[in-house]
Design a protein that fits this description.
161 residues, mainly beta, eight-stranded antiparallel β-barrel, 1 helix, 11% helix, globular
Length: 161
């Protein structure tokens, strides 16, 4: 003798079960990440404040590499202007005190890279941390090999210069 059972499900329970399965299936499917989910955009205001810069490297003079080192306070205004109120430089062991206050200009690209050019000639490529707390700086003038880091030490509003 064959016994057939029929399952009697209320229409509301069936609809609820179908909805729960559909939601679970939707959550299990990975979503494609948007190209802009992790995008970081930098601008001039990313580099705004008072930074302490230190670097070392070499000047190449008549084929000879002369060591150099620098410590410097750099003030970025957030609009593309820069000043250097404190500078100390050593070239081949001779301490040089350049004039203070050397002005310059800087650019910042959306990809957090940029340039810095001082009025008296030194030029740098910048690699900027997206939060603006530090910059890697590479001097790009001919016959120089120098790289260093600038760390933000004060917001511009706290600078009394």
């Amino acid at each position: 003798m064959n016994v057939t059972r029929t399952h009697n499900t209320a229409p509301g329970k069936s609809l609820l079960l179908s909805a729960a399965v559909a939601v679970a299936a939707g959550l299990a499917i990975p979503t494609a990440a948007s190209a802009n989910d992790d995008a970081v955009t930098c601008g001039l205001k990313t580099v705004r404040g008072v930074y302490d810069f230190h670097a070392s490297g070499f000047n190449i003079v008549s084929g000879a590499a002369l060591p150099k080192a620098i410590i410097e306070r750099v003030v970025f205004d957030g609009y593309g202007g820069v000043l250097t109120p404190l500078v100390a430089l050593s070239i081949n062991g001779t301490i040089i005190q350049p004039p203070q206050g050397n002005p310059g200009v800087y650019t910042v690209d959306a990809d957090c890279t940029g340039t810095l050019t001082f009025a008296d000639g030194p030029m740098f490529r910048l690699q900027i941390r997206p939060d603006g707390r530090s910059l890697n700086m590479l001097q790009t003038n001919p016959n120089t090999v120098m790289q260093g880091t600038a760390e933000k030490v004060l917001p511009l509003s706290a600078w009394a210069g």
